[in-house]
Amino acid sequence: YNLLNLKEILENNRPKFLQERRFQLIHSVSSRAIARKFGGDLAAGKPHTDKLPEPVKHTARECYVGFHSYGSFNLFAQRGAVSGSHVDWLNGTWARCVTGLKAWPVMTDLSSEEMETYKKERKDGGGDMYLPTKGRFKMVVLEPQDTLIMPPGTIVVHAPITVEDSLMDGGMFWDEKNLLPTLRNILDVARNPSISNEIVPRQFAEVMDELEAWVKKDTQRFADAAE
């Protein structure tokens, strides 16, 4: 078994750096999109709260919980489980080993030629048989309490291998001060969906509309990202 995007049930504290405002953008823009969609008091609290009228509860769950949930999730895999090489579509991920042992091959700083080759081989062969130049992948071994950070704005090809039954927590995040490279990478994944192992939630376009409006309204906050 290799279970991804499980509901967050662990009560661990998130990595300390994520407490900084600049790294809470996914949560913030998702909440803003919900508020714009439903307005006023209906958007307060969790979108699936029982306090919402039934039509709104259903619509909120359908349209927004998917994107919002990318901010935190749990992972469980049994020994021997392998994920084919891929890129996380939201382009910014942290993953922490809680129990077990995880090997995390990563490839970064891809040249344009390497990226085009990777896109082609993922599209033609599903990615599982992708073979880069010898030594190109670097292996990161995660033991309990180790945290791996794949920063937003950077393409990180990875293919996790479960060495021992492993439970992990993690999430995706953006950096307000490094937004343009992140969005460029997301666009690249959107144009080449085979390089990721995830689908884009239906509400992504609405979230992007909200982000665009926010950036235009508060240009100073995103000044570094606009350069």
Automatic annotation (TrEMBL):
<protein>
    <recommendedName>
        <fullName>JmjC domain-containing protein</fullName>
    </recommendedName>
</protein>
